[in-house]
Specification:
By secondary structure, this protein is an alpha+beta fold. The chain is 56% helix and 22% strand.
Length: 352
């Protein structure tokens, strides 16, 4: 904000001549009889008071606080409080529009310089009026940043501001507030909404807890199902393995039986061949024996016994004699055989 305190040091007064000195941040214009004698920053000089006028314009950035009221789209009043930072670019031009003349002590002679702040506030309010009127109370309270943009844009585009030789640097909105009654109403409504949100959050937490518990239970059941499924698969695999083992055993038994059958078949063939060979051999032997015995079949056994190689054995002859006796037993009345004869026969047999 403009510092409208003393910006010059009053000095010596001699017969209407005075001395004045200004700070470096003050642009000074010395008029004499309506003409500019000297101008510049931080001047110090003697001047003749009766025909001189001195204008002092502060330079650098200036801070200006403002507050004004506007109506929203829902016919509610909001107060906008903020700060405008600006800089005086053209001191000569501003001096031509507003009176910044000072006395010999450096104090402003009138309050015409305060019109600068008022004009900037008016331009800021004009820049935000249409914007605020298009918003509801809630929206306007939350639109501080957009209000800042509207004001700085409006000030930079304003012809009135540019004519004053002023350049706006920045705008800060400190507060956008409703009336006390509406603030209390909004607080109550917001408090109720927050309570509802808190209740909803509690409900959601409970719901989430139940949902999480359900998910955990479902996960446990899914795990149990998966375990049982794995057990079932393992059992099925074991059964399949046992079936394969039994099938292999059966195949081995079948192969063994096939081998046994093949062996028995071969054995049967061998036996058949052997029987056939034995039969042929027997037939051959029978034929040989028949051919050999054929000359003797019609001969009396006595003759055969006589031609036997053991025919000279006395015992054989005695045996033949007994046979002859047996054949003619009906003709023999009494036959006496001595024990000595039998003993001699038996002894001869044992010795032999």
């Amino acid at each position: 904000m403009l510092d409208y305190s003393s910006t010059a040091l009053g000095g010596i007064v001699m017969l209407g001549f005075k001395y004045i000195k200004f700070d470096p941040m003050v642009y000074v214009i010395h008029y004499k009889n309506g003409k500019v004698i000297r101008e510049g920053r931080g001047l110090s000089f003697f001047y003749f008071a009766p025909n001189s006028s001195i204008v002092a314009i502060p330079l650098g950035s200036n801070d200006m606080q403002f507050i004004f009221n506007e109506s929203t789209a829902d016919f509610q009043t909001v107060s906008i409080q903020g700060q405008i930072v600006y800089k005086i670019e053209d001191s000569r031009q501003l001096a031509e529009l507003l009176d910044f003349s000072v006395d010999e002590k450096g104090s402003y002679k009138n309050k015409d310089h305060e019109k600068l702040n008022q004009r900037l506030v008016c331009e800021a309010q004009t820049a935000t009026s249409a914007f605020i009127q298009g918003l509801t109370l809630r929206e306007s309270i939350r639109s501080a940043k957009k209000i800042e943009e509207k004001i700085i844009t409006g000030l930079k585009a304003s012809n009135a501001v540019s004519i004053l030789g002023v350049t706006p640097l920045s705008v800060n909105i400190l507060a956008v507030r409703a009336t006390p009654e509406m603030e209390r109403a909004l607080e109550a409504e917001t408090r109720e909404a927050l309570q509802q949100e808190a209740d909803h959050a509690i409900h959601e937490r409970r719901h989430n807890a139940v949902e999480q518990e359900r998910i955990i239970k479902e996960s446990e059941l899914n795990t149990e199902i998966a375990v049982e499924e794995k057990k079932k698969q393992i059992t099925e695999k074991k059964m399949e393995a046992e079936i394969l083992i039994e099938q292999n055993k059966r195949r081995i038994r079948e192969m063994a039986m096939d081998a046994d059958i093949a062996v028995e078949t071969l054995r049967k063939s061998l036996i058949d061949i052997k029987v056939e060979n034995d039969k042929k051999e027997a037939d051959s032997q029978g034929y040989t024996l028949t051919a050999t015995l054929s000359p003797y079949k019609d001969m009396d056994w006595r003759i055969l016994s006589a031609i036997n190689k053991d025919a000279l054995d006395p015992r054989l002859n005695i045996a033949l004699a007994f046979r002859e006796l047996a054949e003619r037993a009906e003709k023999i009345g009494t036959l006496n055989i001595s024990p000595d004869l039998l003993e001699s026969l038996l002894n001869a047999k044992n010795k032999k």
